[in-house]
Specification:
The protein has 479 residues and is of the alpha+beta class. Helix content is 33%, strand content 20%. The protein has helices at 16-26, 39-45, 66-79, 131-140, 157-163, 170-173, 208-212, 246-257, 270-278, 305-318, 331-342, 344-348, 365-379, 408-428, 453-466; strands at 35-36, 59-61, 83-86, 103-106, 113-117, 122-126, 143-144, 180-187, 192-195, 220-228, 230-231, 236-243, 262-269, 292-299, 324-327, 353-359, 384-390, 395-401.
């Protein structure tokens, strides 16, 4: 990688002749029903959960085999037609948005689980397999796939891999990266790479698998994955505790995490809870309204664990860190308590939130929260703010909701101005401006707050090696 690559240019709309030649080249590859140009399909496949940019793809392709993906990428490379790899389109950073006439390459037809190895506790699947489908298959084998989030019913494993998705159980099980033992990818030149072959140990130089995990479709298209499974956990108990202030959040975390192995430690604000209750049939976990709430999940690994959890809860109440709380006594109650946290994103979607997905070291969370809360109080005095996140791994979600008096453009402009202060604070704590949603379109301008100029220059060089003609996800992560 000694050569100096040219700068990666912003997205360029493909010229009419190039697109026409590309379309003709792949006409015999896919039937007409998997080459979509109608307005509804272009709108549906051209965006993700963000509404940051208006989708404007030229064409949507739905291959159903690795060979077809290879042929499509080679043709795109030959005719310089930009491609946007697309999974379940549940992303929150604009990473799957096609706004400049790109061709969307959807993997949704490649959704099969191909094989299962009980001895290795691995399954091999196509990139379009839905996360929930993998979880259900694992359960049928008496095993467990632990990467989980609210969108697991529609997100696809290829997209999870592309963003190194985290979710609600990272505290115990880690990110998607921890559960991918092998990958098959198609690079920007159409080269097919099979990476790591499911090995546990492989000390033979660079592990390219980890380079593609989290690369947001800018280096290659994930077409297959070997997914590691683990033993199914025993029954778990959920607690929702009301706390008086931000400082108490970490006191509760320290008390519980020092005594038990937490599966999850989530938090959300009273404002977030009100949104969920207003837009669902769920009810308050207890009568008291508190500024903040924490949700804990703990595996009941012994007969004595329930009594021990109750002791820890009572100790937190006695110390003044917890105002009130509830401990699940049935699977239904467990599910409903988790729903209070998991339904926050969908409950605020219609309010057009401006999302901040930020992270610092767990030990820095109290001081960081205090700094960010002060910025929000000064700069967003008349905006509704919704706090929630995976506080047990240092990941905080700050959502600013658009007031009706502002247009979307005006709202985003104001939020971007304040974001510079938030990101400067993140930089002071050596944190991340995107903990789990990726960079995509929305955060590429903020990348220097988390990555040095030298690191970004190396990213460009890596891009040049795997996608020398810059056809894959142009304008995402960096320009």
């Amino acid at each position: 990688m000694s050569q100096t690559p040219s700068a990666v240019n912003p997205p360029q709309r493909p010229d009419h002749q190039s697109l026409a030649t590309f379309t003709a080249a792949i006409r015999n590859l896919l039937p007409a029903e998997r080459r979509l140009t109608d307005a509804d399909s272009l709108l549906t496949y051209g965006r993700d959960w963000t509404r940051f940019a208006e989708p404007a793809p030229s064409l949507v392709l739905l291959p159903d085999s690795v060979e077809q993906v290879v042929a499509i990428v080679k043709a795109a490379c030959q005719f310089r037609v930009p491609l946007v790899p697309s999974g379940g389109r549940t992303g929150l950073s604009g990473g799957a948005v096609a706004a400049h006439g790109e061709v969307v390459l959807s993997l949704e037809k490649m959704n099969r689980i191909l094989d299962f190895n009980a001895a290795d506790r691995t399954l091999r699947c196509q990139a379009g397999a839905v996360t929930g489908q993998i979880q259900a298959f694992a359960k049928e084998q008496g095993l467990f796939y632990p990467v989980d989030f609210a969108s697991s019913g529609s997100s696809q494993i290829g997209g999870n891999i592309a963003t190194n998705a985290g979710g609600i159980k990272v505290l115990k099980y880690g990110l998607t990266r921890n559960w991918i033992s092998g990958l098959t990818v198609v690079t920007g030149t159409g080269e097919l790479l099979e990476l790591n072959h499911g090995l546990v140990k492989n000390a033979t130089g660079y592990d390219w698998r980890h380079l593609f995990i989290g690369s947001e479709g800018t280096l290659g298209v994930v077409v297959e994955a070997q997914v590691q499974l683990t033993r199914a956990p025993q029954e778990s108990q959920a607690l929702v505790l009301g706390v008086p202030d931000l400082a108490a959040l970490m006191q509760v975390f320290e008390r519980f995490s020092n005594k038990v192995d937490l599966i999850a430690f989530e938090f959300f604000s009273e404002a977030a809870l009100q949104k969920v209750l207003a837009r669902s049939t769920l009810t308050r976990p207890f009568a008291s309204a508190c500024p903040f709430y924490v949700l804990l999940e703990i595996e009941l690994v012994s007969a004595e664990m329930q009594a021990f959890i109750l002791e820890l809860f009572e100790a937190c109440v006695e110390a003044g860190w917890v105002v009130d709380g509830v401990i699940s006594q049935s699977q239904t109650q467990f599910t409903n308590l988790w729903a209070l946290r998991e339904r926050i994103s969908e409950s605020i979607a219609e309010d057009i939130p401006f999302k901040n997905d930020i992270a610092v070291k767990i030990s820095d969370v109290p001081a960081f929260l205090e700094r960010i809360d002060a910025i929000v109080a000064v700069d967003y005095p008349d905006f509704e703010t919704i706090w929630f996140g995976h506080i047990g791994d240092g990941n905080l979600h700050l959502n600013i909701l658009k007031p009706t008096r502002l247009t979307k453009a005006e709202f985003f402009e104001q939020c971007h101005q304040v974001s510079t202060k938030i990101f400067a604070c993140v930089q002071d704590f050596h944190g991340s401006i995107s903990a789990e949603h990726g960079v995509g379109l929305l955060k590429k301008d903020a990348l220097p707050y988390s990555r040095s100029a030298a690191e970004i220059a190396l990213m460009r060089q890596v891009k040049q090696v795997f996608d020398p003609h810059h056809i894959l996800n142009q304008g995402k992560v960096f320009d």
